[in-house]
Amino acid sequence: MLPGRGRDGRAARAARILGTRTAWSAVGDGEFFCPGCGGDRNYQRLSGHRRFTFLGLPVLPRGETGPVVECAACQRHFGTDVLDHPTTTRFSAMLRDAVHTVALAVLAAGGTCARPALETAAVTVRAAGFDDCTGEQLNALVEALAADTGRVFSEPCGAGLAIELHEALDPLAPHLAPPGRESILLQGARIALADGPYTPAERDVLATVGAALTIGAEDVPRLLAAAARTPS
């Protein structure tokens, strides 16, 4: 059989004669975490219009496709759900703010803002990214929060504080592996334990932290108990 005379040859000739082509139009841009590159990159959001082609020329519309996200670096296309993943810069900020909020909540629950707890909280917050944080600053923030909300120190986690914890932790939790979520809870536990055993109010706040981080209700007491057994 001569080359090009079989079934594959006929299919190849048909593909050259008839086909489809997609024309892309940019409808937005920004920065995203590219799963292909493994880092933050610029992107274009594209909307496509498909057309039948005859001899390579577009002849009939075939409807719309997309939208898709195109990486400016690797040129690969991804579904728009890729934009739900925070950039590295945004993720770092979310993590930093989450640790700061947990530290303030635990200090407020502790009731006295004792020096050991303040120092432990300041070290924890600095490690998260607030390089200039001091115990005095945290103490002032806790007192201002209490004055602004009328909250009484050492009371159980009220609705307002629970909302603040969920606002800081809910968007972060889906992007953390289980060890990462547990690490944030344990950082709060170490602050609570710095000046003595957990108080009921501290346990209540830490239980709210665990729930916001989607840690199982049965796992939170186990983690808190393990932290209490670990020498500081």
From TrEMBL:
The record, for Pfam families, names: TerB (PF05099)
User: Per its UniProt record, what InterPro entries does this chain match?
Assistant: DjlA_N (IPR007791), TerB-like (IPR029024)
What SUPFAM superfamilies would the database entry show? TerB-like (SSF158682)
Where is each Co-chaperone DjlA N-terminal domain found? 135-222
According to UniProt, the name of this protein is Co-chaperone DjlA N-terminal domain-containing protein
